[in-house]
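ok, trying the design again with the full structure, not the truncated one.
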């Protein structure tokens, strides 16, 4: 008998190893130790502590590799070391496996894809799954040309920030009373 929970964890673990391996292969030698110390199965706190041991210069190189802008249009620096470490953590987490909140399918965003995701999560920067529902939403919003913009949250962040708790379903159990 196969334990489904263990099997899924092993599959996720193998997928994460492949993703990290591909990133390391594409990264400059100076960035590889930063990517190597990241472990998506550890807590955010543990990863932040690990990433914080690197210098701002190396973290900047890693941010550039991940496509994170280090300055605004006027050339002003956007990050302190602490905020840069947090942003790199989120950048790496955005490349890890996730479940689409629209179609329920598991997916992984590629590093430097040919076609960028329709949306990026406002909170964690994860790219949207390229499913039909997200494609239609993207087309609809693009046609509206809304000047105020649009905020998209991935399924994990939506659950995290949603103030309304799901309603508990009634038990279908009938007791003798």
């Amino acid at each position: 008998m196969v334990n489904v929970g263990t099997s899924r964890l092993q599959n996720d673990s193998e997928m994460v190893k492949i993703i990290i391996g591909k990133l390391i292969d594409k990264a400059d030698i100076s960035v590889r130790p930063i990517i190597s110390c990241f472990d998506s199965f550890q807590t955010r706190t543990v990863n932040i502590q690990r990433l914080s041991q690197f210098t701002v210069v190396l973290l900047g190189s890693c941010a550039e590799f991940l496509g994170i802008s280090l300055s605004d249009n006027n050339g002003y620096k956007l990050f302190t070391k602490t905020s840069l470490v947090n942003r790199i953590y989120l950048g790496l987490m955005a490349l890890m496996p996730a479940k689409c909140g629209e179609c329920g399918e598991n997916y992984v965003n590629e590093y430097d894809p040919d076609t960028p995701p329709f949306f990026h999560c406002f909170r964690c920067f994860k790219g949207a799954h390229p499913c039909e529902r997200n494609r239609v939403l993207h087309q609809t919003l693009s046609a509206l040309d809304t000047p105020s913009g649009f905020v998209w949250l991935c399924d994990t962040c939506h659950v995290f920030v949603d103030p309304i708790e799901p309603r508990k379903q009634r038990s279908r159990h009938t007791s003798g009373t």
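Keeping the full-length input from now on. The two ends are 38 Å apart (CA to CA).
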